[in-house]
Design goal:
With 403 residues, the protein is of the alpha/beta class.
Length: 403
């Protein structure tokens, strides 16, 4: 029996191409109509019609470049609209919250940083803070079309389909329906997406940062906790429940220090910020300022700090070797406070990596610092929040105008 082909309606084709065009502009920024025609494989009139649709939706702008010496008509340039819709991107860490308004093209328009401690870390307190941040950002972007979604980066295991946080040990969260709690507080019942910080960092570095063009990469994020995001064959490795990448909780010494996750001797206990402070002999301070002081002292040659950074660098190299042997990546991007460890003692990191990794897997692997600096997880959260708009631009804009 011959299977019947299902006819694709012209409107479905248009919507598909509209999504492709907006994704291309979102990822690459300004592009000429000629470039869009070449990359999308469509004719000029179709590209022109799609661009006109996106202009009418208020998502992009189009202009004719001036000052060209070349003869002939210049190709129109299409760019994300600066006062168009934005998303609320949130990077929730153990000691601070960064909330930003991020526009198409990955432009951070405004941001707010709030220090948190103690009861400020409770889920409902975080939700209250994010609701206040949303209002604060809206007041500072009065000419924009407003938010179209919310993306949140959390240092813990997250069920992506509904934003349920199974365990965020350094926040002391367990079984928290965070996506639901936040959606209830957002204006216009905005779509809320929640992801693991390292997973989102991997997405951002893959699309906009140090690993653009790499199809096999690992993003290792180190702060109080340590997590990993894995891109394999160009797609993200989530695992059956969405919990893949908890690199910081791989056991390297069962008789090692206790970890917040409840186990002992996790990688996190050897390369996390608490481990760095302990190795540097700092026992009466914690937090970003204490970490920055250790790095500053190490850069100045103070021996105790130098030794502390060196100890973490050795364990970091061993950890990277395990990742190389397991996943055979092209690139490992090291972010968070671990990036500074690499800057200060790359030789020790790479020497240990060379010693421990299998030669075939080690060959060609690059250890890079983030192209987005400390914003990897934040920009990754923005990418998560843009998903619905990029998938269906006209439907999303229509829904916003009716609420």
């Amino acid at each position: 029996m011959v299977a019947q082909r299902v006819a694709v309606r012209p409107e479905e084709i248009r919507r598909h191409n509209l999504s492709r065009l907006l994704r291309s502009i979102h990822q690459h920024g300004e592009l000429t109509r000629a470039e869009l025609t070449a990359t999308m494989g469509l004719n000029r009139s179709t590209i022109g019609a799609l661009v006109s649709d996106l202009v009418a939706l208020g998502l992009v702008t189009e202009y004719v470049p001036s000052g060209r010496d070349r003869a002939g008509r210049p190709s129109h340039v299409v760019a994300p609209r600066a006062d168009g819709p934005y998303v609320l991107a949130v990077d929730l860490a153990v000691e601070r919250i960064v909330t930003a308004a991020v526009g198409l093209g990955g432009t951070v328009h405004e941001r707010r940083v709030t220090t948190i401690e103690g009861a400020d870390r409770l889920p409902r307190a975080v939700v209250d803070q994010l609701a206040a941040d949303a209002e604060w950002l809206a007041e500072r972007l009065p000419g924009s079309q407003g938010p179209v979604g919310v993306g949140v980066s959390i240092p813990g295991t997250v069920r992506r389909r509904d934003g349920f946080v199974d365990h965020a040990p350094n926040l002391n969260w367990r079984a928290v329906p965070f996506g639901e709690l936040l959606a209830d507080r957002m204006p216009r019942r905005l779509d809320v997406q929640v992801g693991n910080d390292a997973d989102l960092g991997a997405v951002a570095e893959h699309q906009r940062g140090a690993a653009v063009g790499c199809e096999h990469l690992i993003y290792l994020n180190g702060s109080v906790g340590v997590g990993g995001g894995i891109i394999a064959d160009g797609g993200q490795l989530h695992g059956v429940g969405g919990y893949a990448g908890e690199i910081g909780h791989m056991t390297v010494n069962p008789d090692g220090p206790p970890c917040h996750c409840g186990s002992t001797g996790c990688i996190e206990t050897y390369i996390g910020e608490h481990a760095l402070l302990r190795a540097a002999g700092v026992t009466d301070q914690h937090g970003p300022q204490a970490i920055a002081a250790v790095f500053e002292a190490a850069a100045a040659g103070e021996q105790r700090a130098v030794d502390g950074v060196h100890t973490v660098a050795i364990w970091l190299g061993r950890s990277l070797a395990n990742l190389v042997n397991c996943f055979n990546p092209q690139v490992i991007v090291v972010g968070g406070s671990l990036a500074e460890v690499v800057r200060l003692d790359r030789v020790s990191v790479e020497t240990e990596l060379d010693r421990r990794a299998m030669a075939a897997a080690r060959a060609g692997v690059k250890v890079l610092l983030p192209g987005l600096d400390q914003d990897s997880a934040l920009i990754g959260a923005a990418e998560l929040a843009f998903g619905t708009l990029l998938a269906s631009p006209d439907s999303m804009v229509a829904s916003l105008t009716t609420t």
